[in-house]
Amino acid sequence: MSNATRGIAYEEPLVFERSRPGRRGVGLPPLDVPEVDAETLLGEALRKEPATLPELSELDVVRHFTRLSTWNAAVDLGLYPLGSCTMKYNPKLNEQLARLPGLALAHPHTPAAEVQGLLELMHELEGQLASVSGMSRVSLQPAAGAQGELAGVMMIRAYHASRDDTRRRKVLIPDSAHGTNPASAALNGYDIVAVPSGDDGMLHPDAVEAAMDDEVAALMMTNPNTLGLFETHIGRICEIVHSGGGLVYGDGANLNALLGLSRPGDMGIDVMHFNLHKTFSTPHGGGGPGAGPVGVVEALEPFLPVPVVEQTEAGGFVWDEDRPQTIGRLHGNHGNVGMMVRAYAYILSLGADGLRRSAEMAVLNANYLLTRLQEHYHVPFPGRVMHECVLSDRGLAETGITTLDVAKRLIDHGYHPPTIYFPLIVAGALMIEPTETESREALDRFADTLIEIAREAHRDPEALRTAPQRTRLTRLDETRAARKPILRWQPQDAS
Amino acid sequence: MHYLPHTDDDIEEMLAVIGEPDIDALFAGIPEKLRYSDALDVPAGQSEIEVQKRLGDLAAANTHAGGDAWFLGAGTYAHFIPSAIDALISRAEITTSYTPYQPEISQGTLQTVFEWQTMMASLTGLEVANASMYDGASATAEAALMAMRITRRNRILVSEGVHPHTVHVLTTYLGGLGAEIERLPLEDDGRTASTTLTDDVACVIVQQPNFLGCIEELSQFAEATRAAGALLITSVGEALSLALLRPPGELGADIVCGEAQSFGVPVGFGGPHLGFLAVRMKHVRQLPGRLVGETVDARGKRGFVLTLSTREQHIRRERATSNICTNQGLCLTMATIYLSLMGPAGLRELALQNLAKAEYAKQRLRAAGLELPLSAPTFNEFVVGVPDAPDAALARAKQAGVVGGLDLTRFRPQLGPALLVCTTELCSREAIDRLAAALAGAAA
């Protein structure tokens, strides 16, 4: 059953430990202008000691990073069911297109008239995201979902300020929310009020009503929520917040479940962010870059970040910076445009039908996995789910085996573990998001593996506690790393 | 729909296992009135051939960098990118992995970040660098937020030499937190005027080299901030300058942040690039963003993990140092490969070439009768006055096949008609000569 063998496991030192004085990985052409004396020109400003950089040949560098890469799990190697992160397949076409010189080498300060293709692409993508979400207008500028959240809450603050409504200092956030929600609200100076989820894992109107008063600026919610459940009462909840003068922020992390099926704008969401690297398949890159466009209803349009792309009557595209009520600028240029190019190509490839189909298959896959696993793992909130499902280690309590052990054992079988210990409202949570690009056979193998691990927990718990056993390293000491932080290599460590 | 593997049989069998009659039944949790039944305003799906054609057409409608006659920089620099970088980062293990939450199967990413942290700590002259921020502008805003937390003060002094877009981002970020932002003017030579500080100042932010290309004297600001109990933030405008200029940390900067796009990341219409943020060890617990630390595994072997995560939003929620989670990992990998290829000698030679090209360009422009209004030393970018309207000068340059620089009218009107001209290693002597002749055109 194990499928995690990867040929030879290479050892590889730090890049600095490979260094040999005198080696170079890049040659430069001879200087075609007169040499200058840096000492004369720069004086005291001239650097005395070279930086700690390795001296390597090109092959040294290629081997080093190729070997390092073999230590990573990746979507292209196998199922990567990291809940909330939507680790779907990233089409190769999009990588090729993002590298077209006319897109990859355009300069952000080039006058708009000379980069009409890029402005057209951005304008069209904005429109597509607006249609998918039911929002009135979208800005592509935020560089990641968290920055989109920041922008969204800033717009909420600007909206209230524009109405001289200065009492509103609180933001309501369900206890199942991503950590970025409270952090984004706090960066706007708001106090956070946690709203408890109901026994069914959903947010209930009475809980929101109880927390709602005229000091509430907004409610931030995620739909489907982090348990993978569609928030059935969202319409009523939005009405409650609106009637109290507040706005509703939608965390778009889980939008993949809704494409073409249900739209945040129709639910009553006033402002939301998208994660292009999740829903629209731009690669996750070992931790970014992502992109976090933000969409708003009409009443919030004046507050969008600048610049925005506008289409002129003549059909051309221009930057509009002159928006007096804008929250300002969040990015030094126009955001992570390379990710926009990939997302645009993805949307064109799938089309309206393909987007809806991908959401349907994501939900089918999650429910299939849940059905196959529910007799073997505790399901804290039983029932149908959307794009992801949450299990827990409660059923394994008598074995002493925890979610961490299950996760580590999955690694031995060639799987990246699910998101673990999140959402916080489920003790020992395992949050599984298979995505739509996994086949039935892949899901069956994964389910079989998890079922075998549950059996193994009873039969041979030590095998789980000492997992992973097939990796180069196992169970790294995180406490030690935090207690005496070593955050860089220093030459004296080399001996 | 070739990204979806499901056959009709698969779907039928899976639904049977689940116990639902059809796909629609899976969505019973969505109230009827929230079901979307219209068609999305998205065209029908297209084949790879059609999508290539569409993107090819859009790409063809843009002017782009490349060649030897591109003199536009202003925070985004057209440098040479070694071919090994794209070959390496195209590996799926680098492109299609995510944040290294599970260290046993993320050592490639983790070790790369640790190597990056080491390189940036050394280049900036500080002790700790994080695993990247979105860009130089947001890194500078996060640096200011950090200074406010450390000093518990809220007055921020920002040099007029900081990139106007960076200042705009800073103002946006600090808008909700009661910060007072004041500007420090520039002297006639293009450098920030020295100033004495009162004891309510959280930080002074100076860009190096500044937006107009001038090299600032950092040590005087370090003395002033130290005396007032404030922090000196140096925002690095052109990362390549770190190869040639004394590290800001060595000159007394407490936080060094900036944009590292110059290290092997394409111009890319302004993104994705990568910001960096470096501090002294004593401030590490106030540092935002991911950090990788060295440790050992259960068998005693050296390895790397994400560490000090109690600073971060997923643990600390509203008390986190920032809301950042996903950063610019792939760009960080590109920059780490770049610095490994260049090495100390390569990077220095490259920086010297940039310096020499700029000095040659200045000399040619002067010889053509143009004025260089700022006398401070520069690295690879500088201001040149033009005899008529900047857009007319740029149009002449374009006629001569040269992208002549940035029109400063909107950014620094007090300079009169002027351009910001950047010379990287890719600019040829011949193109510089053409630039000088073209910009001087109307005067001749």
List the helices and strands and how they pair.
The complex is a heterodimer of chains A (495) and B (444).
Chain A: H1 38-42, H2 58-69, H3 92-98, H4 101-104, H5 116-133, E1 137-139, H6 145-162, E2 170-174, H7 180-186, E3 191-195, H8 205-211, E4 216-222, H9 234-243, E5 247-251, H10 264-267, E6 271-273, E7 294-296, E8 308-311, E9 317-320, H11 337-373, E10 389-392, H12 403-412, E11 419-420, E12 429-432, H13 440-459, H14 461-465, H15 478-483
Parallel strand pairs in A: 2-3, 2-4, 4-5, 5-6
Antiparallel strand pairs in A: 1-7, 6-7, 8-9, 10-12, 11-12
Helix pairs in contact in A: 3-11, 5-11, 6-7, 11-13
Chain B: H1 8-18, H2 48-60, H3 83-89, H4 92-95, H5 107-124, E1 128-129, H6 136-151, E2 155-159, H7 164-174, E3 180-184, E4 201-208, H8 218-228, E5 231-236, E6 255-259, E7 275-279, E8 292-296, E9 302-306, H9 313-316, H10 329-367, E10 381-385, H11 390-399, E11 406-407, E12 418-422, H12 429-440
Parallel strand pairs in B: 2-3, 2-4, 4-5, 5-6
Antiparallel strand pairs in B: 1-7, 6-7, 8-9, 10-12, 11-12
Helix pairs in contact in B: 3-10, 5-10, 6-7, 10-12, 11-12
Question: Sheet bearing the most strands of chain A, described?
Answer: 7 strands, mixed
Q: Which two chains have the most extensive interface, and how many residues on each?
A: A-B, 199 and 202 residues
Largest sheet, spatial ordering of strands of chain B = 1-7-6-5-4-2-3
Beta-strand residue fraction of chain A: 5-15%
Radius of gyration of chain B: 25 Å
What amount of the residues of chain B lies in strands? 5-15%
Termini separation of chain A comes to 43 Å
Order of helices and strands of chain B: HHHHHEHEHEEHEEEEEHHEHEEH
Shape of chain B: globular
Q: Can you tell me the CATH superfamily of the largest domain in chain B?
A: Type I PLP-dependent aspartate aminotransferase-like (Major domain)
User: For the largest beta sheet of chain A, what order do the strands appear in spatially?
Assistant: 1-7-6-5-4-2-3
Mean of pLDDT of chain B: 96
Largest sheet of chain B: 7 strands, mixed
Oligomer designation: heterodimer
Number of helices of chain A: 15
Fraction of residues in helix of chain B: 25-40%
Order of helices and strands of chain A: HHHHHEHEHEHEHEHEEEEHEHEEHHH
Low-confidence blocks of residues of chain B: none
Overall structural class of chain A, as computed from helix and strand content, comes to: alpha/beta
CATH architecture of the largest domain in chain A: 3-Layer(aba) Sandwich
